[in-house]
Amino acid sequence: MIVLVFLFLSVAPYKYTPTGPRRPSKHARRVGDSCLPSSIFWAGRDMAAANSVPLITAYKMGKFDLSHRVVLAPLTRQRSYGNVPQPHAILYYSQRASKGGLLIAEATGVSDTAQGYPCTPGIWTKEQVEAWKPIVNAVHEKGGIFFCQIWHVGRVSNHDFQPNGQAPISSTAKPITPQVRANGIDVAIFSTPRRLRTEEIPLVVNDFRVAARNAIEAGFDGVEIHGAHGYLIDQFLKDKVNDRTDRYGGSLENRCRFALEIVEAVVDEIGADRVGIRLSPYASYMQSGDSNPEALGLYMANALNKYGISYLHMVEPRMINVGEKVEVPHSLLPMRKAFKGTFIVVGGYDREEGNTAIASGYADLVAYGRLFLANPDLPRRFELNAPLNKYNRETFYIQDPVVGYTDYPFLDSDL
Ligand SMILES: Cc1cc2nc3c(=O)[nH]c(=O)nc-3n(C[C@H](O)[C@H](O)[C@H](O)COP(=O)(O)O)c2cc1C
């Protein structure tokens, strides 16, 4: 932590640009109305402090005008029965939408081989595209900007999730050893994957291309390519997984080829300004470590510049496992400096650290996972420095359409 703060401070004011006027707060208009709850007056007193909240400043991400820097991180919620997004997601996402706020949808499968968890959504069928439409509309009605995270799990799967019970596909034929699930009780068993043949790889690249087109058809403003957390793209990127001897394995350049071919195909399909990518070079989630994460992250940051994509979304080195924060001596600063587009950071951020990251120029935007999950009005709470709801891990992945999903309270009961 000390190292991270030092790095934030040592780069100030790298790439930090003052922004235009803030969106007027609802509170500013309503303070003084004697029928309002007392929390409103408390909020009003805090307005002076809110004026200097770096997270609540405007930012232009390409053609998208953001009114604040608090991004909804992609969050798998496992409530999409039969891999089809459900009507209850309309309320869930619209609760978290705000005018000029960027939301990234949960990881969404690109094909029928992409799945590895129960009830995760897809975007490869007409039915799925149609089911996304009212969800995207609801976010747009609230003025939100909505990207879809497109995903292939690769070997993080087993026969039960695969068409005809076939083996999951991967860069490798090495299986993942059984893992305790996020609930801390169940053990996930993974099947031995089938190593993709070189000539099959363009077909998977094409699945990402089609998924991106489908996302735009569903109304999304863009897509985030899921290149993080040990899933298929990461299985190619990381040298502790990728044991290929063809042009997709071995050297750094070869291991990054699959990811960059996907970026190129998706950019070609929907335009660079609608494309972001998420990477986690330092993470070893799902046994996906790399011997030189900084070199990997830097190579990708530089290579991505060629395509002019909208953003690079990077997971902090301290998140070696999703949801676990550990002290590390590394920082994303080299990648931040190398990448020319919008730089989003994620992983263990609170309000104060997010403000420091923005004010120092360490990042353009900060994504919040668990805090946003539990606080549908997180940007407003940050603006007011209001207390936060605590998240309940036990309901992260249950299939209930309400509990732990749309029942986290807003700051004011009248919202
Ligand atoms: C319930 C849950 C679901 C998640 N699902 C995804 C996902 O679908 N895609 C992804 O890239 N990361 C996923 N993550 C990781 C988060 O996006 C985020 O990187 C992580 O929670 C760290 O950020 P935080 O400390 O703000 O929560 C998930 C995390 C949680 C807790």
Automatic annotation (TrEMBL):
Which ranges carry the NADH:flavin oxidoreductase/NADH oxidase N-terminal domain?
Answer: 59-388
| InterPro entries documented for this protein | Aldolase_TIM, OxRdtase_FMN_N, Oye-like
Coiled coil residues, start to end: none
Q: Which residues form the signal peptide?
A: 1-16
Determine if NADP is one of this entry's keywords: yes
Source superkingdom: Eukaryota
| GO BP annotation list | jasmonic acid biosynthetic process; oxylipin biosynthetic process
Family stated for the protein in its record: Belongs to the NADH:flavin oxidoreductase/NADH oxidase family.
Name of this chain's protein: (wild Malaysian banana) hypothetical protein
Species whose genome carries this gene: Musa acuminata subsp. malaccensis (Wild banana)
